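Bug report (template v2)

What were you trying to do?
Predict the complex of my protein with dihydroflavine-adenine dinucleotide.

What happened?
Run completed; filing so the output is reviewed.

Input:
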Amino acid sequence: YVNAIGTHNEFVLCMNNIIPFVNTSGYVFTHDMPMYSSLVSSEHNPRCSNLTVFRRPVGVVTPKNKWEIRAAIICSQEQGLQVRVRSGGHDYEGLSYLCKSPFVIIDMRNLRSISIDIKQETAWVQSGATLGELYYSIAQTSQTHGFPAGICPSVGVGGHFSGGGFGTMVRKYGLAADNVIDAYLVDATGRFLDRESMGEDLFWAIRGGGGASFGVIVSWKIKLVRVPPKVTVFNVHKNMDQHTVDIIHNWQYEAHKMKNELFIRLLIQYVNDDNNTSVQALFNSLFLGELKDLIPLMNEKFPQLGLNAEDCIEMSWIESVLYFAGLKGAPELLLGNKTDPYVSYFKAKSDFVTKPIPPHVFVRIQEKFYQQKLIFMIMDPYGGRMSEISESHIPFPHREGNLYNIQYLVKWEVNGVQASKDHIHWLKELYKYMEPYVSKHPRSAYLNYRDLDIGTNTHENNTSYMEAKVWGEKYFKGNFKRLTKVKSRVDPDNFFRNEQSIPLHQN
Ligand code: FDA
């Protein structure tokens, strides 16, 4: 970190002037205050904050209401500071808390209320809430409602919804962002806008285009979805051998065509159990229905997996949330993000697959995993509801024609420049190897699995549309142009910017 000196006093003074009746020491933290260090270092991927090009923030603001967000925006502009907005802090490249220029973090941790209207089947959720808190609150109110968002309970609503967001119900109900029906945002001029006052273009942009380019989203109104009182889950492990490669081959043809209620995720991973090393394929599934209906379905559509009733467990939807998160115990476990088990050094990349990958590729992947050890490939089937929604409905364009999404993820425990270099090199090798077998022109990527390797804004504040297309069309395809037009209208001075923010259209 490089210290930004001299501006924190002016920033605090400005905040005091705008909201004179609230003591700033309760929500503005500068480097001379004890809370500052813990607020600055609370991130999920230490790989990012180890990079020395980043500064320490001039201050961290933890607003309790929209007025404090507004004040932070206005004072940052007055002081020539940038802002980074952090909800759950899971950004894969740390863009919610790292910046190369003097900046302020707006941390949404105190804005995490959730209010559910079960009659209307809707909820208002603030951006600082986690997915776990949202799922828990829904289940406290109704056993037959849920919400289709990501699997990890500590992920923040703010970043997740604004980047798309998918999980075990993606085939039945689409993305989290597909199920957002209203939102409150504070824009670059400090105005509070809801769906009606922000207009349909901006409301479109923040559902998948990344909130960080457009403003600070305070809260979201979502449509809850119906889940049966009993769902069924299974987890089938197979050692990677020729037979498993054949099963994977079949999975590629069937998983996206199954009934929308059935989601079968495939995870390939290197396992080291008491020095017995192996590469395993894990078929991890949620069926929105009972076991008696699942078994005949699997026998008919995917008999190769050889699923037995003993492999399956019936449970409530909220129990399935814990099951997928790898948590054992009461639903209250979804509320704690203090001891987050997911903190580790990691780097990820993503792909979309539009044609089944030939079996020999999986044989080669297995060999690569033995050499490189801590790599995971997580494959989430699409189809179902995802294919019914048009590519331009929201900025997330990866719809019909995509069989599944791949996330490549490499993790390591040891800090150090060499460890990072080695692991990232392995990941890049695997990504390069996969090129012929995944989507092309462009080779697509998922914004919420952010990857700065696919391209960044080349100039801090005036990257041209043509330059940014390199990465922008990978995330957004044809929607990128519309995003730049919305950006030009709502933030013409490009105040909300970062390495992968939407540039202005006219540049
Ligand atoms: P964070 O706070 O870091 O924000 C991410 C981005 O959104 C940043 O650019 C930030 O500035 C911006 N932002 C955040 N809050 C904002 C606000 N209120 N207004 C405007 N901009 C805002 N994804 C998925 O689809 N399915 C999954 O199952 C998972 N699982 C998963 C597990 C783990 C362990 C990790 C680390 C990540 C995932 N993800 C995922 C990816 C996740 O969806 C993605 O990282 C989200 O952007 C995280 O949102 P946070 O609010 O936690 O991040």
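What did the reviewer find?
The chain has 17 helices and 18 strands. The chain has a mean pLDDT of 93.
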